[in-house]
Design brief:
Belongs to the peptidase S8 family. This protein has 425 residues and is of the alpha/beta class. It has two domains: 294 residues, Peptidase S8/S53 domain (Rossmann fold); 90 residues, Alpha-Beta Plaits. It contains 13 helices and 17 strands. Strands 7-8-6-11-13-14-15 form a seven-stranded parallel β-sheet, with helices on both faces. Strands 2-3-1-4 form a four-stranded antiparallel β-sheet, with helices on both faces. The two termini are 25 Å apart.
């Protein structure tokens, strides 16, 4: 009966979603996306920061504090642009990895690879790279009975031990609807690294944030895997019509750097793209600081692609995605997942993006109880033989039991009073 009621509630919510974009599985076409079209002519040029780090101003509008060092580096960047026939567009300091990042654009249709190769031989340049393109990986709460993690991961039992209280999770994605009833009070900070349009509520970011940290027990919609977290909604991706959310090296780099400089304990990247030197350097800096990085696997790539396959990153696939064994990926629920949608609505989503969100939430539960060993605990409680089942291959109960050093799900007192409600894992 609860499941039928949940379906009825979801259908009612879906009827209100007419006109809300949902993601198609087709690749976005550059000509329909001005940001992506412009990025094809742009290159990122890194200059080393001196020992004294200078940060962006409080508005994060892209400027520097007014210091002589930043002005000198900008003059150097202008000289480099002129020498290589480029136009200097923008700049952003990345103190987490000790570089200034300058955006330059070629104007004569020269192959971008040739431009990067020429810059690589300029002694003033730490490194240069194309502006790479990334895509989101789509594929008492009335909807709780429909949540695979509700029964496969025993969320109610997990929440008796941990809710991820006060753990900061950076959702680096498209915009998040902070006014959604299931996300009220969950958003610690919102930043837009894409443009100057302010706070934007978009489909993919709202869905990911809901899976990670939606309120539990509020009588609305779903329960997040970690309903006690503090979400950092960092908009580094944008949505164009019904196409998948897209991001690039610079927007993602800005967001990751912000997360590192502002105390994120977990970074969720529900996206994939080509190997990228700037993002790799930032993620390696995050891992060196003990930050947990969770990324969605690209189902088209045998190893899960970038950044999921980067050593130290927890790459996440959904059951049914075919990745060759042995694989370093973990598997989590990612098919027909009810979650939040902009405009106080809910909808169903599928894809490794949402599997990654589940693992980011579980990591927050573990981090509340045992911060130093989250990645090791997650990987220790996986079973490659059961990756195809709905809930994936993570034994969430065992993982939290280990982190909290207490029984979580199949406890003796529970077995004695309600044996018929239990099933062995």
């Amino acid at each position: 009966m609860n499941r039928l009621l949940a379906w009825a509630t979801l259908i009612a919510a879906l009827l209100g979603l007419a006109g809300v974009p949902v993601h198609a599985q087709d690749h976005a076409q550059d000509h329909a996306d001005p940001l992506a079209q412009a990025a094809r002519r742009q290159v990122l040029v890194m200059l080393r920061l001196p020992a004294q780090h200078f940060r962006p101003d409080a508005s994060y509008g892209g400027g520097y504090l007014k210091d002589g060092g930043s002005a000198a580096r900008r003059r150097v960047a202008s000289d480099i642009a002129a020498a290589h026939g480029l136009r200097l567009l923008d700049s952003w300091p990345m103190p987490a990895i000790g570089v200034d990042c300058f955006v330059m654009e070629e104007s004569d249709d020269a192959p971008i690879e040739r431009v990067v190769a020429a810059l690589a031989h300029d002694a003033r340049v730490a490194w240069a790279q194309p502006l790479a393109d990334f895509q989101a990986q789509d594929g008492g709460d009335p909807l709780y009975p429909l949540q695979p993690a509700g029964h496969d991961w025993h969320l109610t039992d997990l929440h008796r031990v941990s809710t991820g209280r006060n753990v900061s999770v950076a959702v680096i994605d498209s915009g998040v609807d902070a006014d959604h009833p299931d996300l009220a009070g969950r958003i610690k900070v919102r930043r837009n690294f894409v443009d100057d349009s302010g706070d934007v509520a978009e489909v993919h970011g709202t869905a990911v944030a809901g899976i990670i940290g939606a309120l539990a027990g509020n009588g609305a919609g779903i329960a997040g895997v970690a309903p006690g977290v503090k979400l950092m909604a960092l908009r580094a991706c944008w949505e164009t019509g019904a196409r998948p959310a897209r991001c690039n090296s610079l927007t993602l780099g800005k967001a990751i750097n912000y997360a590192l400089e502002n105390g994120a304990r977990i970074i969720n990247l529900s996206l994939a793209g080509p190997a990228d030197r700037l993002l790799q350097a930032l993620l390696q800096a995050a891992l060196a600081r003990g930050v947990i990085v969770v990324a969605a696997a690209d189902p088209r790539m045998p190893d899960g692609g970038f950044p999921a396959a980067l050593p130290g990153v927890i790459g996440v696939a959904r059951p049914g995605d075919r990745h060759p064994a042995p694989s370093t990926l973990v598997y989590a629920p990612g098919t027909d997942i009810p979650t939040c949608a902009p405009g106080q609505r809910w909808h169903m989503v599928s894809g490794s993006s949402y599997a990654a969100a589940h693992v980011a939430g579980l990591a927050a539960l573990l981090a509340e109880r045992q911060p130093g060993t989250v990645a090791q605990t997650l990987r220790r409680q996986t079973d490659g033989a059961v990756a195809a089942r709905t809930g994936g291959n993570i034994d969430a109960c065992a993982a939290l039991s280990r982190a909290a050093d207490t029984c979580v799900c199949l406890c003796p007192s529970t077995v004695a009073t309600a044996p018929s409600s239990l099933r062995l894992r």
